[in-house]
Amino acid sequence: MIAASALVIMGVDAVFRRLPAAMMRAILVVMLVVMPSALLIGSGNDATQVVVLVAIFAALFTLVEYSAASPSLVEFRDAPPFNRTRFSALFATVLCLSMIFRGYDNPSPLTAMFETTGAAIGQAIDFPYSPVRLMVLMMPADSDPALLDRLRDAAGLSYLIGLFSIVWFIVLLRLQRWPRRGGAFNVWVNLPTFDPTAGGDVVLRLQRDGRINIILGFLLPFLAPVVVKLAALFAAPINLDNPHSLIWTVAAWAFLPASIVMRGVALTRVADMIQMQRDKVRHRAAVSALSGY
Length: 293
Hints:
Layout: H1 2-39, H2 45-67, H3 82-105, H4 109-125, H5 131-137, H6 145-175, H7 187-190, H8 202-234, H9 243-291
Helix pairs in contact: 1-2, 1-3, 3-4, 3-6, 3-9, 4-6, 5-6, 5-8, 6-9, 8-9
């Protein structure tokens, strides 16, 4: 009875220790959700109410996931900087796009810098069969040329941020010896959606899932515009005249593939770590067997 009570107290203490950091993450998520509405001019009352509602749900979800003993959906919670890198990439993408579209209605030297940078990157990446060119081609033929230019600039800048986040995560993975960095790696906490007992070798399953995620992440920027274009043939074409819709559509198009690639790299790294531990155990067992003779 005493031992059970002690475990309960330790669990409550652990939750309260995680609560300040979880609250800070929830605040950052709220800032991310409301950023376009706060920076852009002319957001309607209905749109503002929807944004506030989404921000509240996102904050509650983040608070619960990061304060609980074990998350239910968030992967690699206790293995930074995986989620920090992903969130930073999405935050930077939404911030840059919001500043670009703010400059169309309320220009300033700062917004002009974002517009110039986005235009230069968009034109540089807009070559035949590139993801940016496919994003432009998915729009209806009678689209406003100014809208196409804005879409090109936003897609180019977002895609570059996504690529940079992947490279940055790989660099941190090598420099910081991620995910362990000298501590224990809890598979149950960091991979809540992965069932080690589902069948088959854990290492092989992690390697397979990692490769699938990497391939899917690299193909998704090319496949998504094609799917949207085909869907427009049988339904209403996509409408990105609203700056808010364009910002979140382009941000999701660039962020999701980068996030999937980083997840694939992370799963592959975890598989390598487990394999290394197995090799160490086998080596020790072999040494002990030999020393017995």
